[in-house]
Amino acid sequence: MYQLTAFRCAALFLLIGGIAPSIERAYAISESRPEVSGEQTAPPLILPDLEGRQRSLDEWRGKVLLVNFWASWCAPCQAEIPRLVRMQQRYGDKGFQVVGVGIDTARPLANVRRSLGINYPILVLDPDRAGPLLRLWGNAARYVPYSVLVDRDNRVVYRQSGEVEDTVFADFISPRL
Fold first, then answer.
1. For residue 83, which of 72, 73, 68 has the smallest C-alpha distance?
2. Domain that holds residue 77
3. Of 29, 70, 104, 161, which one has the fewest beta carbons inside 10 Å?
4. Would you say 119 and 85 are in contact if contact means Cβ atoms under 8 Å apart?
5. Cα angle vertex 152, ends 171, 57, to 5°?
6. In the chain, how many domains are there?
7. How far is CA 165 from CA 20, 41, 77, 139, 153, in A?
8. pTM of the model
């Protein structure tokens, strides 16, 4: 009996020791400074929307795009959605477009859209296929939320893990409209 308890304690200790650095890295990335490049062309992105229609980022070429990767189960993702809704509402007619890429199935994403009043397109990314696509878009750690700003010339000009702050609009988006 004692050996089994000691084994469980040792296993728990190892588990916690393995998880703690991951949590620390996740926090550090979400608090990191955004990356700004302007050199890379935005990768292609063709995914179904919530109604099952294939959509491509090419539909919004010539606009300033904020591609926001998120998940229905992610609390920080849901916390930033009202800010993205306001940005789309205020600046959509000036050539700005938010495109949400939900890493989930359509039903939970549609539920979040309904409950938070999302006013921009949501594309559906199968969680089993998310890793390679997130890496292609510069998110090797696969954290969400993750946002990429693409200028009118289809160049990646900004990347950020974590919630998009209001200052991002003033610093990166507004000058490109």
1. 68
2. 34-176
3. 29
4. yes
5. 110
6. 2
7. 26, 24, 12, 18, 24
8. 0.79
Question: What are the tens digits of pLDDT across the range 8-67?
Answer: 545 545 444 544 444 433 433 344 445 565 668 999 999 999 999 999 999 999 999 999
Strand order in the sheet with 96-103: 122-125, 96-103, 64-70, 146-150, 156-161
Running DSSP on this structure, what letter comes out for residue 57? G
**Single-letter residue type at 95:** G
Q: Are residues 167 and 89 in the same domain?
A: yes
Task: Give CA–CA dist 2/134, Å, rounded.
Answer: 46
The rounded distance, in Å, linking the Cα atoms of 103 and 73 is 9
Asked whether 157 and 176 are in contact (CB, 8 A), the reply is: yes
Taking residue 43's Cβ as centre, other Cβ atoms within 10 Å add up to 16
Same domain as 155, residue 107: yes
Q: In this structure, are 54 and 91 located in the same domain?
A: yes
